[in-house]
Amino acid sequence: MADSDRSVDFGFEKVAAADKASRVRSVFESVAGRYDVMNDLMSFGAHRLWKHFTLSLTGLRPGQRALDVAGGTGDLAAGLLRQVGKSGRVVLSDINPAMLEIGRDRLLDAGFVGNVECLVADAERLPFEDNAFDCVTIGFGLRNVTDKAAALKSMHRVLKPGGQLLVLEFSTPVAPALKPLYDAYSFKVLPLLGRLVAKDADSYRYLAESIRMHPNQETLLEMLRSAGFIQARYHNLTGGIVAVHRGYKF
After folding, report:
1. DSSP single-letter state for residue 175
2. SS3 per-residue string spanning 93-153
3. Which domains are seen in the chain, by residue range?
4. What phi and psi, each to the nearest 5 degrees, are found at residue 88?
5. How many C-beta neighbours within 10 Å does residue 35 have?
6. What's phi and psi for 95, nearest 5 deg?
7. What is the β-pairing status of strands 116-120 and 89-94?
8. What is the distance between the alpha carbons of residues 110 and 69, in angstroms, rounded to a whole number?
9. Contacting residues for 39 by C-beta, under 8 A, at least 6 apart
10. How many whole angstroms separate alpha carbon 31 and alpha carbon 36?
């Protein structure tokens, strides 16, 4: 079926598959300038702990190569650069030039030069040779991808044998008492914060909706296995509000 005929989720809305990427791009172009501030406000700073935990799982050593997909403003990429050192290399990729520009500037301001590349790239069709990276990360980006299965296969392809994928993403709370509080926060507080801080309530309403439409922990685990990853498993963080899925290339 052609993308023009196939419909996909854009939050709670159904849109043509061919249109989703441009709709997502518009969202992140709108919020790029306040993205980091909003992350701190929305998560009460917890996103830094989630990213720190993800980085603790990479197993990267100096001299190795890593790719951060949909890396936005560069938080994970900065951590990867510290792990691979001057003799290693990190590629920060994002489909959104506005986000990537902020990420590039932040890395430069932090003193990372010479061993980092910033590249506009589609997660579903990564423009790298096979077996190129020791580790691939994607943080809070997979839910915005039109074809998640294609993106997982693309990330699998560019990993070296023995390399690891780490997917940090919002997920499904595992504590029943947490769900009503989380829903109220997501659909009332987040759009309000978006309106007051980022001057864009609609984009943050979409982000809340996109979390609800993202596959839950077990479904995403099976998607990793279907994409070819072995030893696939996940770690729930903050009661399952966030999960880190991981798997290796054989």
Report:
1. S
2. EECCHHHHHHHHHHHHHCCCCCCEEEEECCHHHCCCCCCCEEEEEEECCHHHCCCHHHHHH
3. 19-174+206-249 (3.40.50.150)
4. -100, -170
5. 17
6. -80, -15
7. parallel
8. 20
9. 47
10. 9
**Which residues pair with residue 94 across a beta bridge?**
120
With beta carbons less than 8 A apart as the criterion, state whether 229 and 165 touch: yes
Lowest mean pLDDT among 49-63, 73-87, 164-178, 212-226: 164-178
Each residue of 206-236: pLDDT tens digit? 888 888 889 999 999 999 999 999 999 999 9
- Chain length of the chain: 250
**Which residues have CB under 8 Å from 167's CB, separation 6+?**
137, 138, 142, 220, 224, 244, 245, 246
- Report the Cα–Cα distance between both ends of the chain, in Å, rounded: 31
pLDDT above 80 for 2: no
The candidate with the shortest Cα–Cα distance to 138, out of 227, 201, 17, 62, is 227
> What are the tokens at 50?
């989630």
For residues 36 and 72, give the distance between their C-alpha atoms in angstroms, rounded to a whole number: 10
3 state SS of 162: strand
Amino acid in the structure at residue 148: K
Report which residue type is found at 100: L
Q: How far is CA 30 from CA 23, 85, 95, in A?
A: 11, 34, 14
Tokens of 26: 């518009």
